[in-house]
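Researcher: Please translate sequence to structure tokens.
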Amino acid sequence: SLVVLFGATAGAYGAKLGSDERELILLVWQVVDLQNKKVGTLHKSLVKADNLDLSDQCREVSGLTPEGLGKAEPLDRVLQQFSQLVSSDLKVLGRSSYTLCSDGQLLIRQVLHPETSKKNFLLSDCFYSFYDLRKEFHTCYPSSAAVKDQTIKTMAEYLGLGTDEAEEDFGVWQVKTMVAIIFSMLSEDCNHIFSEPETVKHKYETGPCSKSETVDSETVIRARGLPWQSSDQDIARFFKGLNIAKGGVALCLNSQGRRNGEALVRFVNSEQRDLALERHKHHMGSRYIEVYKATGEEFLKIAGGTSNEVAQFLSKENQVIIRMRGLPFTATQEDVLGFLGPECPVTGGKEGLLFVKYPDGRPTGDAFVLFSCEEYAQNALKKHKEILGKRYIELFRSTAAEVQQVVLNRYMSTPLIPTLPTPIIPVIPPPYTIATGSIRDCVRLRGLPYTAGIDDILEFMGDATGDIKPHGVHMVLNQQGRPSGDAFIQMKSADKAFMVAQKCHKKMMKDRYVEVFQCSGEEMNFVLMGGTLNRSGLSPPPCKLPCLSPPAYAAFQTAAVIPAEAAALYQPQALLPSTRTPQASAAAPPTVTYYPAQAAQLYMNYTAYYPSPPVSPTTVGYIAAPPGAVAAAATATHTPILPQPGALVRMQGLPYNTGMKEILSFFQGYQYAPDDYNGLIQLSDQARSVLQAPKEWVCL
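Model: Translation complete:
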């Protein structure tokens, strides 16, 4: 038997059904006995949505009103009634089993599964298998229109069925016509057999991916804007109703090994990928997620691996992976198993543990653990920040792709500090404030096209370009080095900023409208240095010191951005005391020109703090100088900060309660440079967030 099913939402209709996240408001169904060619009672049920604001298209097509829907039952009650009425009709027809049949895949995959997932209730098993009438029709009538161009009306016209849509209620005509189409397909001329239903996966299957594997680029998407704590299961839930390939979720990590809010997702075929693209800007919690096309090469770069050790670790299917960070370097497998305890047994015992190590075999303090079910994993996560030895251990959800990225690619396996003779650009430049004060003489541009440059902004500003301060255009990159879609502009006065905000707000740039807000220099400065400015107000940055962008960014493509004099070797003032000679202070580097006449852009890290699960091992993020700057620095005259080579040492792994007295006692018998211990500087919390090097001191 078939249960012919039709539905509608409060928003888009037809080919865009479900693309706008609107809720289901109508279900119509009828049981069809294929063997005896009989039908059961036709049922129509309204569904009460949480948001009864109907779109104009919905009102026009369906004729439904918010008043009528307000008296209906919620979706969970309607689905219970659906199951009861179908069972009753089957009993009358003398049948026992059935499969759903819908007009296309959108109602099942893009409406019912996502909505019930968000509302946290389960669909019955019948919704995980269904027939797509359009595909079945095209199989039966190969000369008909392509599947993507089919509708109930075009299929009826092809068969010459003379049904009048205006004579029936919305939804009733659609179901009656679908039933008539099915009976035509069952006629002696066609004798069609419904044999291969569409399926929806109950859950996402984890698994490894080999770099030698071929991945079709037509099956991969990139999801952007994910919460930092998102796991592969969270992403699979976002795409509920669509079939993700086994091991097809790869969380992306940045150059520091931290999750960057992006993921590559591989689907079983291009049809599923195309449906996934329709979920662009759908919500995960309170965040909207951007969905774009990606390539198979990009997926393999993130998810692919060839290590036998990792392959063996990930060979156990359908396991929950937990990442442990902060393990003592002397921790053994027995120590970890004892820490987790009997309430969360590890799959395979010691075989379910994978320690992350440096290329030279030293432990990093990270490990991955396998659990056979969600219950054991939840018990393990409850041990977050409990003590093992003398250290607290952090536990996070992880994925197979993250295991391969951390273990195989070894983002953090580079030397801790480069050879001292090689000139470096400091992480923290000389103190420089872009703008200060509470006068609202700046504007913020939000929603810029990612390809937009300063020339585009100047064209966008029009006549107001003449009111921009010199060096007053500041582009903003996010922490991955990509355009964030934001820019700040310093105007000559608050009145000019107000006029620009009024004139240019929601004006189009290329194919996007741009929002323009008036703000102060202080607000602009905070955001450029990692803070946030939103409806909730101003949140200061975790670190109030700006960070230079990595050399791969375009900021280093022009010598005007970093003058040759600034490329000389010197240490950040937050770490080392100033030189105790008058000559050194007189030779301070000049201020960096952030917006030269050649229209170079201000490229700054959008934030220096990553609230994603930390990565081990930690490192001081020194940035190699661009070749041109290094060459210039070699010929430049500068006063070295270090009194002699090798005078700087770094201590890692100190207890958090370590004081100056313990440090001096540790170095007893060695001569350290300054009197009254000015050379011994404990890192502040802000410096930690920039350098990402907890539990450390620097001694001179």
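Researcher: Any highlights?
Model: Residues 649-699 form one domain.
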